[in-house]
Amino acid sequence: MKRIFFYWMTCLAAVGVTSCEQEYTPDGKTYEKQIVIESYIEKSNSAYPVYALITYSLPFYSSFGIDVVNNSYVHDADVSIEYNSRRVQLQEICLNDLQEPFKSELLKSLGYKQDSVKTDICVYVDINREVIAEEGIDYRLRVIKDKDTLTGYTTIPQLIPIDSIWFEIPPGTPKDSSYAQMFCIISDIPGHKDFYRYFTAGQNERLIANTNSVTDDVFYDGQKFKFTLIKALGPDEKFGDYSGLFHRKDTIQIKWCNIPQSHYDFWNTLETSRTRQGPFSSYVRIDGNIDRGLGIFGGQNCAYYTLIVPDK
Amino acid sequence: MKQAWITMYFLMQMLNGINSQQKFTISGHIKEYGSGETMIGVNIYLVSDPSVGLLSNAYGFYSITLDTGHYTLQFSYLGYTSALKNVHLTKDMVMDVELIPGIQIKEVEVTADNPRKNIESTDMGTIDIGIETVKKLPALLGEVDLMKTLQLLPGVSSASEGTAGIYVRGGGPDQNLVLLDEAIVYNTGHLFGFFSIFNSDAIKNFTLIKGNMPANYGGRISSVIDVQMKEGNNQNYVIEGGVGLISSRFTVQGPIQKNKSSFILSGRRTYALDLAQPFINNTDFAGSNYYFYDLNAKVNYQFSDRDRIYLSGYFGRDVFKFANNKRAFTIELPYGNATGTLRWNHVLNDNLFLNLSLISNDYKFGLNGGQEEFQFEVNSGVRDYSVKADLDYYPDPNHQIKTGFRYTYHKLTPNVVNATNGEEVFRTNFQSKYGHESELYVMDDWSLSRVFKLNIGMRWSMFNQVGPYTSSLDSTKYNSGDLVKTYQMPEPRIGFTRSITNSSSIKGGISIASQFIHLVSNSGSTLPADVWVPSTEIVKPQIGIQYALGYYQNFLDNRIEASVETYYKDLRNQLDYRESYVENFSAEIENEFVSGKGRAYGVELFVRKNKGNFTGWIGYTLSRTERWFTQIENARVYPSVYDRPHDLVVVCNYALSKNWQVSGSFIYASGKAYTPIKSLFFIEGRPNIEYGLRNSARLEDYHRLDLSFVYENAEKKNRNYHSSWTFSIYNVYNRKNPFFTYTDFESNIYSGNATAKALKVTLFTMIPSVTWNFYWKAIN
């Protein structure tokens, strides 16, 4: 509720009074380099192998050019996944080390257009797909870089798939027949805390998450509930009248996941932190699950859906 | 309880009997000439010995017991002509006194209005500002605001620029006891805090106590803002009001039965967006609007010389509506307070005064809206019912004893959500929380000698949390009315005054206070959406212990008063949200709190000139306010959001001519503490902020000059109809004070052209305004 409240108050403050803004450079004295991990272990038919993007946090620059981004990757780290008394080492791969057409195919499979990626992305990957993603197993990620050892723990919860998906004419007037709003039905498990995250994309596009991509089941515990699926806003898209709606006749993808609480807490705090700005709000510290570092090691159990938005 | 009262009464009668063998009592009410309004805090003393005296109480009653003899009593009050009364005291006598506002009348003209009150009283950190002074000061958008005037006093700072919320000596906004005719006001702000709920036309008197709180006040640990509404003119009908840029005010008052009974009805409403409705209605946002309104009403009736009843009420609402017809989306946000007070004043005998009050207050916050078949509503609030009795006893001029009790039934409703999506219904299972708060106090303002006075008091407070409630500690379920938890707090208070010379004194005091109702905000300032919570088995009562010492000196025959006060506050069981807290409806809010400690200390300098064509004050505060919580940054001591190390205020008013007055206020304060950006990191290709240590950076220092010019035709001023114009300029030299900061990120990191901007936003640049005020009085 407060998010809605903050939003409207900020609008009101902006509209109602004479305000102005000035750019400033945050004090660099507080900067402290830290290792950031973004790693997921996914159970699904379309899962990527387990991977870990490992970078350094950056001071506040006004722009992040190719060199800045390339230099942020942590190289030569010892990265492994442990589970069921097994330990699997992840291999470092950098995009520029890959040969064509494998590089283009990889980018395509990740949903990137080749010319949109200009930085040399480096990632630690379970190349041989040795890590088996299973429900209820505890996984440990360990990263050793120089004298630092970082760890993170996660698990994979039970998947609660979407029961049904359909489209309706968007609310509001005038009724625009070229767009549709998507809904789905979920049958939540009673007496069990469930956490959900979803992604959307067009055909052959990269699946991306909406600005509020996670939810818990506090309102719907054990219920069959109707849920609105919002089309995520791409990085270059501006919010507009038809944001969140799907264009009719388009082929679209949905990725629907169940995640454990630590994974939910991370995204819940991160997404709130991104939107929590303005005169009436205070900061939100992002609640990651990496010991001695920043970021997330998140398990997820996902289902993928591809469908065509009906003409009518 | 009844037995205790009877025992207390007879004990007082006995004491009175012993002390009054050679003594007689003069008592009565003090009223304003022309309106019959009772006057609070009027200084009454013997001209032959100014150290013998007292102040009229909150209902305008006074009582002074003296030996048989001839006396000249002086009655004085700031802004009023003092009255001298010669009495030959051979028996108990009742003497009502009327004071004339403003104009000097030859027969009663005196040389000093209010001498040495600040030197001799045991009050510390107590400042009275006349409502007329408030009306002359520059105001944002011309809206005269009592709370913003308080921000101009040393030790008091604003929650953020332009807002009416206040922090007193490092205390949080929930730690201020705000009373309107004895009813607690839980939310003092309109328009998200930019304007206070107090309509200056309906207010008679207000007092800020930021230092040693007397024992008759409690329930909050930081300060008291005690506001009394006007009673209504019992002599003539009066209509007054004002038309401003964003709102208008209208007040009507008059006698129901002359000298016996009167009424006042006062309203205020904003209309800035109402005027824009024709334009809004032609857009997709038709139906959007915002306004707030206040209604103050009061009636009183004097049954006899000894009995009087008052019935007063306040009702105010903010209504914010937003509609986006293109997306069939609506949202409505109504919130506000309603208070009601029924009081019975009874003079038991010449030196024993009783006030009995029944009080209710109700603060509601609502948010509702939806999009077609999805509809939701969120409700929260506080509802209290109180009964209160105060007994003022004046056995002799050396003792003013006050005792009483207050009982309050609290119902606090957290954010209860109800939502429907077609046939599906969702709701949170949170229940309202209930509590009984009981308070008992006794205090004595005791003159041990001509130069040494004590104010000693003891307050005992108790809070019972009762069901229905489900314990999150052991899952015990409590039914309605079942006792869950009891807290009891003895709260001793002591203050002293030692006069050094006729124009100087030192004062000191220690006070302990506890608080059972809390408001924890995780925003930059308090908001109407913030939820009040009671003490429970999880949330312990807040405790504040304040030590204060001050030196007071008057100059130039008391025309200039000055003081230096130092204080140290020890704050326990302070509340905050846990780190990484995000608003949600999945957990009881009390489970999201962490408990810690705090301290505030500082020095306040204050110089004020009250008389002459040039009046005003200078206040400077040097202070620190800190908090620490075991679960926040491992108990690192950090400056609280209320911390303002330096705070300088200069306020002045000058009568340029018979018709023109100019007022100005200048504020300089240290920048607000905030949590800086430590670094950026990328997740899913988008930048995110890692924040540094809490409140470890500061915004730029804040300073601002405001001016106002009041034009009033002096020749017409004393006629039955007159009007005035007030021209205000807020932020005269257009200082761009940063109000908040934010960051703006663009593009995707993998494309190699991501940008980040950190921005400071100034909310209020230079803002001129104009207000027209009118006054009409019926001539009998």
Strand content of chain B: over 45%
**Fraction in helix of chain B:** under 10%
For the report, how would you describe the main beta sheet of chain B?
A: 22 strands, antiparallel, barrel
Could you tell me how far the N terminus lies from the C terminus of chain A, measured between alpha carbons in angstroms? 34 Å
Q: Give the averaged pLDDT of chain A, no decimals.
A: 86
Number of helices of chain A: 4
Structural class, from helix and strand content of chain A? mainly beta
What is the level 1 CATH name of the largest domain in chain B? Mainly Beta
How far do the termini of chain B sit from each other? 49 Å
Q: What is the H/E order of chain A?
A: HEEEEHEEEHEEEEEEEEEEHEE
Stretches of chain A where pLDDT falls below 50 for ≥5 residues? 1-17
For the structure shown, list the relevant keywords.
heterodimer; A: 312 residues; Immunoglobulin-like; eight-stranded mixed beta sheet; five-stranded antiparallel beta sheet; globular; B: 780 residues; mainly beta; Ferric Hydroxamate Uptake Protein, Chain A, domain 1; Maltoporin, Chain A; five-stranded mixed beta sheet; 58% strand
